[in-house]
Amino acid sequence: MGNTSEPSMPPVLDARDLVKEYPLPRSLRELASHPFRAKRRRALDGLTLRLEAGERVALVGPNGVGKTTLARILCGVVLPDSGRALVGARDVAGGGAARREVGLARPDDPALHPRLDVIECLRFHRALYGVAEGELGFALERVGAADLATRRVQGLSAGERAKVSLAKALMHAPSLLILDELSRVLDPGAAARTRGLLSELTSAGKAVLLITHDLNEAAQCDRVVVMDGGKSRAQGRWGEVEGEAREVFGL
Amino acid sequence: MRRVLGLVAAFVRRDLLVDFSYRGSSVFTVAGALFSLWSLYFLGRTFGNSSPLLAVSGGDYFRFALVGIAFSVPLRGGMAGVSRRVRELQLFGGLESLVSSPVPPFGSIVLVALYPLLSAAVRGGLLFSLGVLVFGAQFPQANYLWACVALGLGMAAYLAFGIVSAAFVVVFKRGDPVAWALDALTFLVSGIIYPVEVLPRLLHPVAALVPATHALAALRQALLQGAGLAEIAPSLRSLLLFCGLLLPASALVLRAALRKAARDGTLGQV
Between the N and C ends of chain A, which has fewer C-beta atoms within 10 Å? Predict the structure, then answer.
């Protein structure tokens, strides 16, 4: 019995059993004693995570638990050792179409060339993603950065760069938006505007993944995933996972 | 096709703007070109116009060396420029953002290579023009069409070396000693400022394995003697063979390098 006849929407993000280990540099002594034994650090240890359309999820955890590795896997710049991540039912390791479904904003966004004007950086991004010209100004206006268009990136403050990075990530209308510690450099006004923008996006059916150390920010999300040791230690509403979240930070 | 042209324009425009943001660099380029041409001009006057080894240029050393120097720039400069651009992208993190875009990684690197190639071709053209306009070198019989074909094939062969060099940079995060060695070998044996015939016989087979030797031979025949397809066909055949072997091989090497970097998670590392 039940509602088996209703077609279910696929999740925006469906990451299963992601494992990622990074090779570590070895000393000459280690190389001499065990030349073929690799030294590795496990960044993700079987992480499973789903995000539904319209959901805003916070990913919290101390430094080095694999949050940024997850973001890099979702962007396709790191391949998982095992497991897979589907965005919009497409495997991110497959490249192409799946890459259009992901937008990443971060304060130190390397897509913004320091020697170029903001508008030129966004024009380049527009060409990479095949976005219409009109989206460029619209994206800057949405994040309150229209006045930065003709400024050179290297002259921007960290907060201004974060806004431009967010505009860049929004331009190609991804179904999954990842914000990697963006709020830590935004002033209170810009942070409030960004929260409003994220609400608009989730209302429009986009999914938002906030990677953050700010527990107040995490508390405002639909769901919080507490990461520890490369895997999800707890998932749920803030009230359900607050204890775990404070514990992993040693608070 | 429109998408590809849009990407080509976007990559070239971006790199051009970055280049122009360093004011004064073009002044140094012109000054450097003038100084190197002056050296060749006085060397030419020292040797006179009667060396039998310079038959292709009617014994004129300056015209012989001008073609060698000017057109080795797009060949050698293109190769070094590609790996240098990839290294720059790696250092400020742009490589990671390119690879995360919908453009396939191999396509991204080829697009990254376009500006260094174009800018090296412009610098080569500038040297050649200065040789004609400032130093009075004459090319009355020049067959520019076939010279362009030979140059294009030579640049394509060196693009393959540039891509292999970029692959080295992607994996090892260092300037590529292979590219450096190849560049030095090209300068030594391909007949840039002296004819290949003056090399010891032992080095002749080595010279034949360097694409620049064939590109420069065809360029000199076309520009100095007005040679057409029939005369430069052997050189063009060799260049086509280099391109046919090297370009697919370089694509495989780069793909493997990008995959290894993505597996190791080192694309964004410097």
Answer: N
- Residue contact A110–B92, C-beta within 8 A: yes
Q: What is the pLDDT of residue A3?
A: 45
pLDDT of residue A164: 95
The residue ranges of chain A whose pLDDT is under 50 are 1-6
Residues of chain B with pLDDT under 50: none
Look at residue A1 in the predicted model and tell me its pLDDT: 39
Per-residue pLDDT at A89: 86
Residue B94 contacts A, CB cutoff 8 Å: yes
How far apart, in whole angstroms, are the C-alpha atoms of residue B36 and residue A226? Answer: 64
**Cβ burial B7-16 (10 Å sphere, 16+ → b, else e):** bbebbbebbe
Q: Which of B14, B18, B100 sits opposite A77 (nearest CB)?
A: B100
CA A61 from chain center: how many Å? 14
ipTM: 0.82
Q: Which residues contact B43 (CB under 8 A, 6 or more apart)?
A: B61, B62, B65
Nearest Cα to A245, choosing from A206, A210, A219? Answer: A219
The CA distance from B8 to B114, in Å, is 8
Contact B146, B230 (CB under 8 A): no
The total of other beta-carbon atoms located within 10 Å of residue B203's CB is 14
For residue B102, which of A108, A14, A84, A126 has the smallest C-alpha distance? A126
Between CA A75 and CA B95 the distance in angstroms is: 13
End-to-end CA distance of chain A: 46
Is the minimum CB–CB distance between B125 and chain A shorter than 8 Å?
A: no
Expressed in angstroms, the distance from the first to the final Cα of chain B is: 34
Indicate the Cα dihedral angle A199, A200, A202, A207, nearest 10°. -100
Question: In the prediction, which pLDDT does B241 show?
Answer: 97
Angstroms from B218 CA to nearest CA on chain A: 38
